[in-house]
Design brief:
The chain has 123 residues and is of the alpha+beta class. 20% of the residues lie in helices and 36% in strands. The chain has one domain: VC0802-like (2-Layer Sandwich). The protein is built from two helices and eight strands; from the N terminus they run E-E-E-E-E-H-E-E-H-E. Strands 1, 2, 3, 4, 5, 6, 7 and 8 form an eight-stranded mixed β-sheet that branches. A hairpin with a 4-residue loop joins strand 3 and strand 4. The two termini are 16 Å apart.
């Protein structure tokens, strides 16, 4: 059974200007730079004031445990289930696992739908 753990903090998704300074000492953030943009997902309280664009009001849950790269369909199963329930997602991945973000107003409904589908939601 796949376990999901809700994170206890509000998150923001930001687009930063190229070359923006990011405090890498924060305890939770995702930073991605491509040839087109610099994006940051962080606790709302840590969002930079000078972000080009910022979207607050996100919550997240983590897929518990280290996910082997050979596992197939984990994100697609969760995203399809939430899509059927009218819930949009923003997903980010680390080496070990995946994080699924939903808007705050959809978060409890998302967790309920996942529980009903057999996912274990821990506190």
């Amino acid at each position: 059974m796949m376990e999901l753990t809700p994170l206890p903090c509000a998150l923001s998704v930001c687009r930063l200007r190229k070359g923006a300074a990011v405090d890498l000492n924060r305890d939770f953030y995702f930073l991605c730079r491509t040839d087109e943009e610099l994006s940051l997902v962080c606790k709302t309280e840590d969002a930079p004031a000078d972000a080009e664009k910022r979207d607050d009001g996100w919550r997240a849950f983590r897929i518990r445990g280290e996910l082997d790269f050979s596992l197939i369909g984990i994100l697609s199963g969760i995203s399809a289930l939430l899509a059927r329930n009218g819930i949009g997602i923003f997903a980010v991945s680390t080496y070990n696992t995946d994080y699924i973000l939903t808007k705050e107003e959809d978060f409890a409904r998302a967790l309920d739908a996942l529980r009903e589908a057999g996912y274990a939601v821990t506190r």
